[in-house]
Design brief:
The chain is α/β, with parallel strands linked by helices. The protein is built from 13 helices and nine strands.
Length: about 375
């Protein structure tokens, strides 16, 4: 029986069965959405929810919004992540209204207990039964998901964000510390009639590197292609992201993925890509990508991510040569393989074996948790 905090059931106070774990999982989802929900903010969030006692939907919403968000840009990401993780019923990408009060405790419901809702509760509260199912879903193989689980996965992927590793730009900005900005300092002196004033300083700005995603849509990748393209759709919200599909042809789908609505974007991609569930010509298509796009700057200094199982119908030597060429152009090459997490896996496929010597990071790509880890690798968190 789920009871509000502090109430007894059958003469005993019910022990929490994972309320904190659910809230920590929500903070993890926020970090995947691009919100800097670090340890200090998470601690403040947990304390706020604990102080509020029996958790109202609005209490959880506002406790998280006030403690986990650091600036205005975080607010829209918070709305999407809250809707996806707690299942409020709002469409991902739209601002969710303030959730209606529904007094339910954030503990995991017994699987045998039927869910009961009041007549006015038509959206479902952010209970741990919903959130804990999201936690379980994070680690499940995408190829094994049922239709309902895939729908929830799509909501969670819609809240994703992907940023490339930061690099120092040639541009400078005013700063409290750094080199003296001679031009601004002289202008300040002239403005005050030559009277000595405070030295003006500037520092180099940092900006994320371009991210290039090459998504394999061949027949062997069919169980994963939709989820990986939705991951790419979330990534393409950034201005410095390019997305291509690879199979028997190379297709640039950055413009198709620019639709704000994920379903519209997927329909646009389906219409633009002619080689769904076909064969795989990784070496030839990588050469085409480098000839048409890489040499012109798309891959130069970028973080290039290949999402593929590495099956190659062409000559593996061609793939090996083009991977070496890509490695010389890109800042970093990352390969995410959905098959890598399977028991007993070894990169014995000819294409995968040929590519690996030129890969900086070889990671899983089979689950939501694996994609979250991939996003961290793209940000350079594994090298911090």
């Amino acid at each position: 029986m789920v009871a509000p905090r502090g109430e007894a059931a059958h003469g005993h106070s019910p022990a929490p069965l994972g309320g904190d774990a659910v809230l920590v999982g929500f903070a993890r989802a926020l970090r995947s959405a691009g919100v800097d929900a670090g340890a200090d903010r998470l601690h403040a969030f947990l304390r706020a929810v604990d102080e509020l006692g029996p958790a109202l939907r609005a209490d959880v919403y506002w406790a998280g919004r006030l403690t986990l968000c650091g600036d205005r840009d975080d607010l829209e990401r918070y709305e999407r992540a809250f809707a996806a993780y707690f299942g409020t019923g709002a469409r991902a990408g739209r601002a969710t209204p303030v959730p209606p009060p529904s007094r339910l405790r954030l503990v995991v419901r017994d699987a045998a207990e039927p869910r009961t809702t009041s007549a006015g509760d038509d959206e479902g509260p952010p209970t741990a039964s919903l959130a804990s199912s999201a936690e379980v879903l994070r680690h499940r193989d995408i190829a094994e998901l049922a239709a309902a689980d895939r729908a929830q996965l799509r909501r969670l992927l819609a809240a994703f964000a992907l940023h490339g590793e930061s690099r120092r730009s040639a541009r400078r900005r005013p700063a409290r510390r750094g080199e003296v900005d001679a031009h601004r300092t002289v202008r300040e002196l002239l403005r005050h009639g030559g009277e000595p004033g405070r030295l003006r300083r500037h520092a180099r700005t940092e900006r994320p590197r371009r991210v290039v995603l090459l998504v394999d849509v061949s027949g062997s990748m069919a169980p994963y292609a939709d989820a990986l393209l939705r991951f790419a759709h979330a990534a393409a919200r950034g201005p410095r992201t390019e997305v291509f599909t690879i199979g028997t042809r190379l297709t640039r789908v950055t413009r198709e993925l620019s639709h704000r609505d994920p379903d519209l974007a997927m329909r646009a991609v389906a219409a633009a890509v002619p080689d769904w569930r076909g064969g795989t010509r990784l070496g030839v298509l990588l050469r085409e990508f480098l000839n048409r796009w890489g040499q012109r700057g798309t891959a130069r200094g970028a973080v290039v991510v290949v999402l593929s199982d590495g099956w190659e119908r062409g000559d593996p030597e061609v793939l090996a040569a083009q991977m070496r060429r890509l490695r010389r152009l890109a800042h970093r090459v990352i390969w995410a393989n959905p098959r890598r997490a399977r028991p007993g896996y070894a990169p014995l496929a000819a294409g995968m074996a040929a590519a690996l010597p030129s890969v900086d990071a070889f990671v899983d790509g089979h689950s939501l948790a694996a994609l979250e880890s991939l996003a961290a690798v793209v940000r350079g968190a594994d090298r911090a």
